[in-house]
Amino acid sequence: MKRGERIYAYIQQGSEAWPGDQVTGRIGFDAQQIAAALDILRNNVSKELNELHRQGKIVKFLGRPVLYFDKACLESALGVELGEGACQFDDVEAISQSKAPAEPENPFARLIGADRSLKRQVEQAKAAILYPPDGLHTLIVGQTGVGKTLFAHMMFEYGKTMHRFAEDAPFVTFNCADYYNNPQLLISHVFGYVKGAFTGAEQSKAGLVEEADGGVLFLDEIHRLPPEGQEMIFYFMDTGTFNRLGETRRSRQAKVLIIGATTEDPDSVLTKTFVRRIPNIMKIPPLAERSSGEKLDIIKLMFQDEAQRVKKPIRVGVETIKALVGSIGSGNVGQLKSNIKLLCAQAFLSGIDSPEGIEVDFKMLPQQIRNGLLTLSANRQALAEVTKALGSDSCIIVPPGPEFQLTDADSGVEPFNLYQVVEAKVDLLKGEGISSDLIKQILATDVNIYVRNLYNKKHSVNMTTRERLLKIVDASLVDFAEHVALYVQKRMNSSYHDRFLYAFSLHLSAFLKRVKSKDVPHKELEGAVPQDSLCLEVAQEIGSLIEKHYHIEVPRVEIEYIALLLESSQEDDLDDRVVIVVATHGQSTATSMVEVAQRLFGTTDVSVLAVDMPLEVRPQAVLDKMTAMLKSMHCLKGVLILADMGSLCNLGPSLEKSIEVPVRTIDMVSTPLILEAMRKAELAGMDLDGLYDSLVSFHGYEARDVTKDEELAKVTDDGRVVVTICSTGQGTALKLKSLVEDILRGAGQALPVIPVGLVKLEERLQEIAEGHRIVAAVGVKKPAMRIPFIPLEAIIDGAGEAALLEIVTGSRGTARPRQGSRVVQNLCAESLQKFLTYLNPEKVLPLLMEFDQRLEAGRAEPLANPLRIRLLVHCGCALERCVMRKPLHYGGNPAELDRRKVQQLQKAAELFSEKLHLTLAADEYYFMAEMI
């Protein structure tokens, strides 16, 4: 019986024997209890329990500890059906509640402050919706960005919940400011018009009032309605009748609840007659007047929304949240939301290669938000409330929404590390299967952008470059860097002293640390700078200065780094670039997208134009505007239009004819597409066709299946291949690929191994199978295709290694001896590389494997691979502790341990005394005996 089947049988038997009168509260069996009863490791029990729960065989009761109960037995005991799939509850009573008819959800329950600062407004809103017979017309007053539109939507949703509106009732929005300078057009839009009512009215058209019949008409900026429009609205409120523009009799009827919104004082901007017709006027307070707790809740909610979008945890420092709270001003919730979106987008771009998540750091905040920290500090009561609510640690917002505290707040990290920029990118691009030449081109571009944005004079008004550097690096290093910067300025006859000084100082500090730790940078950077360039020549001279000053050797790859810094620090030539035009439908969509993209880059150097096309504007007018803008610019290298849809995608040929330069168009514009276009436009040598070709297949920054055709080119003569499967085709699949290749090589079976992801898994396998024979699949999911499958756990446990070799060779007994397990060796080596500081892992590992072999020989039954790995890593760390004379102290009672196990460990460890002259402390043996 398999492990999972044993665990399920145990739960099933225990559930059947559970007394019927005790099926209350939290019932069932926890992982520790099952592990002890079945003699299975607790982590393995937890894994199987999660799988059984996912399959819908058992029910999970939340709490500490988590309890599990057989689903069928529970259904029988309670006389209910829990349905298919996974089920989890707080207790048995919660099951009865979940099966009771659900009460309609109150939309206002989701509104932050509904039971606090907005309690009176919520009560007003509910009364306005429920007041017989058809509710009360309402006016919402508040500053820009306080949430007036959101409040109106919640009133409408509440009306549907209470059955005041039908489920398909309309909610029609109209901004009265759109036509404020044309009263006739505004009134015709609200009430409609008949044919011939005015010039151009070729046919009758219904207005918004008719469209909103049976629902809500939300009039935003209602103070922009002209007096005659207000008169028609209040007459409609009184009688429920109206007439279209051009009609003389008010014979039309509609049942509409009017909700208006304004930022102004109603008594000042609306007629008294109109105000008297609105019985329910409510004021939404500005965000600055709401409690600190509400402000924090709103900020956390906004970060949760962004975490959900980027599908990564977002780490936010306490000082960052305090600054956001203190920066809340006239922009209210709307401005706060824009600020947080921008910060998260900037953090996403900075941490795009990080799988762990992104970090919104205080240092990336614009000055006006940073000043919020000072503003909050001036209010001692508010500061105390926020500090008490936040604590002292960073806050992690994870995609599903909940937040928790993190105690290992980052500190003392230098703001610039060119090695990290290059090496993280190299690892990512190599994993994508990109060629070395293209990697070098991308690296050159990324370093270029990174250095250009590192030093921004606009944010250094109050501090010189030297003062900024002295906060990070030693004065002697800054002195030397200033000497080099002056040399470069004279040698290259250029005036980029400050930018180069800042970048070079920080990079030199990182380089000296690498020399000290003997950490060699990536070789892939070599060749990224043209070999005949002046930058490379000057970089070699700087290398000589460093060698002379610090008495160290500067490797060739370091010269390439310095050359990249020199290239990246030069001034831009805007005349030699492709001009990017972002064109979208809407009042300000393109403008907003371009503004976000430029602020993310922290620069407006790249020539990017925004062209907005309101829905009432003709395409010819947009073309004329675009032509005029481009004729006033240098765009000899061409124009790239990034459009959203429709007529804007067809302007290219006409524009090309007008301005007499080449034009290319890409549709479905998005902010990531604009960012990528700006990034690639930074390469002055990239022409229009090259830019277009590189973007036309761009689909965003998400991870993709990186299986490349080159893998298929490595197949053997008989076409046999092995595939590894994980979620993305990267990460685990690539690591697993390395393990499987090692296993096969050790057995003389050098078959190619191809990593694939779960996305379109079957299609990818069919594609591979068309020209090749898949002999086995190893990974996290069994494919539908009929091929031998070995789970990832089996490879780690050791059984999968023998099974794989049996499949590949077609015979039994070809597996290597257990002691030579490649998986154990590889995983131990990887862990020891991380944990050992003084001992050489490569020297220690063979001794540990011999220790493992001796221990196995003295035991009646072998250890599972995961336990072997854990034991060997502990033993390796114990050897280092022995060298450092810092042994662990066992807190338990040694007398309770199995003495035979301790003796087996001591006997196997004799080889350390023989070959290393090291003797482990007795407490180390106690820890290891407890493990096995």
TrEMBL record:
<dbReference type="InterPro" id="IPR033887">
    <property type="entry name" value="PTS_IIA_man"/>
</dbReference>
<dbReference type="Pfam" id="PF00874">
    <property type="entry name" value="PRD"/>
</dbReference>
<dbReference type="GO" id="GO:0016020">
    <property type="term" value="C:membrane"/>
</dbReference>
<dbReference type="InterPro" id="IPR027417">
    <property type="entry name" value="P-loop_NTPase"/>
</dbReference>
<dbReference type="Pfam" id="PF03610">
    <property type="entry name" value="EIIA-man"/>
</dbReference>
<dbReference type="InterPro" id="IPR036662">
    <property type="entry name" value="PTS_EIIA_man-typ_sf"/>
</dbReference>
<feature type="domain" description="PTS EIIA type-4">
    <location>
        <begin position="577"/>
        <end position="723"/>
    </location>
</feature>
<protein>
    <submittedName>
        <fullName>Sigma-54-dependent transcriptional regulator</fullName>
    </submittedName>
</protein>
<keyword id="KW-0547">Nucleotide-binding</keyword>
<dbReference type="InterPro" id="IPR036634">
    <property type="entry name" value="PRD_sf"/>
</dbReference>
<dbReference type="GO" id="GO:0016301">
    <property type="term" value="F:kinase activity"/>
</dbReference>
<keyword id="KW-0418">Kinase</keyword>
<dbReference type="InterPro" id="IPR011608">
    <property type="entry name" value="PRD"/>
</dbReference>
<keyword id="KW-0067">ATP-binding</keyword>
<dbReference type="InterPro" id="IPR003593">
    <property type="entry name" value="AAA+_ATPase"/>
</dbReference>
<dbReference type="GO" id="GO:0005524">
    <property type="term" value="F:ATP binding"/>
</dbReference>
<dbReference type="InterPro" id="IPR004701">
    <property type="entry name" value="PTS_EIIA_man-typ"/>
</dbReference>
<dbReference type="GO" id="GO:0006355">
    <property type="term" value="P:regulation of DNA-templated transcription"/>
</dbReference>
<feature type="domain" description="Sigma-54 factor interaction">
    <location>
        <begin position="111"/>
        <end position="345"/>
    </location>
</feature>
<dbReference type="Pfam" id="PF00158">
    <property type="entry name" value="Sigma54_activat"/>
</dbReference>
<feature type="domain" description="PRD">
    <location>
        <begin position="472"/>
        <end position="576"/>
    </location>
</feature>
<dbReference type="GO" id="GO:0009401">
    <property type="term" value="P:phosphoenolpyruvate-dependent sugar phosphotransferase system"/>
</dbReference>
<keyword id="KW-0808">Transferase</keyword>
<dbReference type="InterPro" id="IPR002078">
    <property type="entry name" value="Sigma_54_int"/>
</dbReference>
